[in-house]
Amino acid sequence: MSQNNVFEQVIKLIPRREFERAVAKFDGDKGTSRLDCWSWFGALLFGQLTGHDSIRAIERVFCHSNDRMKRLGFTPIRRSTLAEANHKRPLGLLEEIFKFTLQQARACCPKSHGFRFKGQLLALDSTTISLCLALSPWANYRRQKGGVKLHTSIDLAGDLPELAVITIAKRNDIPVARNNFRFKKGTTVVFDRGYWDSSWLQQLTDSGVFWVTRERRNNQFRVSESRETDRTQGYICDQIVYQKRISGSYSRRYRKRLRRISYKDPDTGKKLTFLTNRFDLATSTICALYKARWKVELFFKTLKQNLKVKKFLGNSAHAVKTQIYVALIAYLLVQMIRAMTKSRVSMPDATAVIGTLLLLRQPLQSLFGRLPCVTRHPPSPQLVLQI
Question: Which of 107, 248, 273, 365 could form a disulfide with 215 if both were Cys (CB 3.0 to 4.6 A apart)?
Fold first, then answer.
């Protein structure tokens, strides 16, 4: 029995029946005669995994590997039909596939925060993806720059994006978070101080959601209680505080009590002040929660460096969002493969290996078998002299 190539094994992680169910839900194939949604999605996913950043390159691969692609149910790809599909196919279809793939990834990916913590822990943040302003004038957010913004919340236990919202870059983060993100009761959400909004934080607290953030410079508080801390470990203070009235407006004040923790890094001397509505956790745990927020920055870095979200196959807002959603689905599929193979290979290395071997006939279980697990260190600033 011949072994399927890597691409066949990867795309079969999304069952065809589930995909067709989503197509029927959004009438994705309505009015199409040449390129169905399955072939359209397969072409975009192939481009994400291999790094092809042009429609012409994708067309050539699908034409030269016609027999292999036919076995997966793909129809021939043409540049004009693929470009048109990127502008017209429903985004709801990709959102549905993203949700299904996320459920599959949750079931197989290991869950570990890196420290002891009970309950769901999410990191909320956004990143700007630059666009050419001359080609995409709808994405203007500065005088000579264009871009879109990807808002997401990352499950820190499995490094999985729980939700993705794509807006223009000049859209503020707080309205997007208030209108699109719904957190379950008991969830702990970590975000930076750019998300500070008293009314929204009050809403989260009233709905039973915990949060951890950094203090803004213009925030003023009244200290109600001070707790003992271990200053030898860098914990300067642990206080119960109430926010003072801002500019004479009572409605802009967070009315409930808060916990303020100040920490000074013994090595760098940098001082950080955190605010949270959790009073049951140790001081060290609150600091560790905010430190774990860095995982969302690593997610954005991996997405931009290892998947195709810099050069787009279309210039319209619809085409840009389409490519970003397919990139997120590709990210989840690679995470699933890492979990299924129980590999310790990093996410960037796994993406590079899969993209390189995508058309080879090799089982997924042996895909990362011979890769060394190397810890990367920055180069030494000292010049090495050859003797």
Answer: 273
Q: How confident is the model at residue 1 (pLDDT cuts 50, 70, 90)?
A: very low
SS3 96: helix
- What pLDDT shows up at residue 248? 45
Long-range contact set of residues 115-120: C-beta below 8 Å, sequence gap at least 24: 115/285, 115/288, 115/292, 117/188, 117/285, 117/289, 119/186, 119/187, 119/188, 120/155, 120/157, 120/184, 120/186, 120/187, 120/188
Mean pLDDT confidence for 192-202: 91
Question: Would 289 be classed as within a structural domain?
Answer: no
Q: What is the pLDDT averaged over residues 13-30?
A: 92
Question: Are 51 and 304 a contacting pair, CB within 8 Å?
Answer: no
CA distance 56 to 79: 6
Check if the beta carbon of residue 284 is closer than 8 Å to that of residue 291. no
Evaluated on CA atoms 186, 191, 193, 194, the torsion sign reads negative
Q: For residue 174, which amino acid is it? A: I
In the block, tokens 């390159």 appear at 57
**253 within some domain:** yes
User: How many Å apart are CA 318 and CA 93, to the nearest integer?
Assistant: 13
Are both 276 and 319 inside the same structural domain? no
For residue 382, pLDDT over 70 is answered with no
Whole-number Å distance between alpha carbons of 350 and 301: 15
Q: What is the pTM of this model?
A: 0.88
Place of tokens 């890769």: 371
Please classify residue 56 by burial: count the beta carbons closer than 10 Å to its beta carbon, then call 0-12 exposed, 13-18 middle and 19+ buried: exposed
Residue 50 dihedral angles phi and psi, to the nearest 5°: -90, -15
Which phi and psi angles does 217 have, rounded to 5°? -65, -35
Q: Environment class of residue 165 by beta-carbon count within 10 Å: exposed (0-12), middle (13-18) or buried (19+)?
A: middle
- The reply to whether 13 and 72 lie within a common domain is yes
Q: How many domains does the chain have?
A: 2
Amino acid at 275: L
Asked if the structure places residue 275 within a domain, the reply is yes
Query: Burial, 293: exposed, middle or buried (Cβ in 10 Å; 0-12, 13-18, 19+)?
Result: buried
Of the three residues 260, 280, 300, the one that is the final residue of a domain is 280
The verdict on residue 149 lying in a domain is: no
The CA-to-CA distance between both ends of the chain, in Å, stands at: 57
Q: Which domain holds residue 48?
A: 6-96+315-366
